[in-house]
Every structure is written in C-alpha cells, then in structure tokens.
# Entry
Amino acid sequence: MKVSGCTCGFLLLAAVASAQDVPPPATQIAGAVLAAPEERRAGARVLGWDAAGKFVTLREGTNEQVCVADNPKVDGFNVSCYHKDLEAFMARGRELTAQGVTEDKQRDATRWKEVDDKKLAIGKDGFLTVLTGKSFDPATGQVAEAYTRWVVYVPYATAASTGLPVKPAPGVPWLMDPGTAGAHIMISPVRPK
# Structure
C-alpha cells in the first residue's frame, strides 16, 4: 500500500463537486474533525467544499490542527487532520493535482525537490491522522466501518536514524520514503474483520 495514494490522494484531490453533492458546511466540519484528537476538535481549522464545489476554508482555527472534509466526489468517507506546519506541503500537493499532476510518485518527487531546494516548507515534523469508513451519519456523528491510521512526518529520517523497518507489516510502525523530505512513519493498525 502506497501512503501517498492513501493519505495524500484524498488530501490533494480538490476536484470540483457539483452543488447538489456538497453537504452543508456544518456536516462537513462535523465529519472532518473526527480525525483530530478530541481535545483539539473545537479549535481546528477545517477545509472543505462550498456550495459551488470549490475547495475553501469552512472554518478558521484557533489551534495547530488543520482538518480536511470528506470529498463529496469520492465514494466512501475519508477525512484527515494534520499539524498546521504541514499545510504548505499539503497545499502544494493540492495545487499540483489541480495542475494535472495526479501520479503520486511525480507529485511527491516534485514536492520533495522543492523542500530540498528550500522553496517549500514541510516543518521539522508533523502528525497526520486519517479516518476512513463506508459512510458518515451526521445525525449520530458515527462513521460506518471506521478505520483510523496515523502518519508521523520525519523529514530525511532513515532506517538507521530511527531503527524502524522500511517495509510494511500488519500492525507494525514502519518508515516510508526513508531519506527523503517526505519520510514518514506509518502506523496502520490491523483492520477489524
């Protein structure tokens, strides 16, 4: 499983949605913040879609969390929250996607080079939570078949500097993209059956 496809794909996909598909801002916010630690939800900045389907800020934040609402053009439920220091990196990914750079490896390589060249900031480290599921019920606040995974960005970290494996194994944290600006620790619990 390629993390870019799992975590960045939905973060970076800011496709225009038709107005009839876009949930109201309150619904988008309620779902998006479920990926944030409970004590940070009320102050999180939330990004999502306006009635015209444009990617916008739905709510300004008062803390370090940035949450991204579920994309109404993609099946299932998929939201994320990350530290504000990752916003420039994530926003650049969305920009590249909008420009037609949709291949994960190309988008990642572009951003990593920009970080290497000091043209793009990724922050010293950052934490990303991804919550997926079959659907979200705004009336109950419940996600059907909810699954949460975490990513800890540690730019330029290697197996030698962390002691982590660089290949995935069920339920074991591992280092993806070691030695790059986008190096990150993947924490993916075993999915419930």
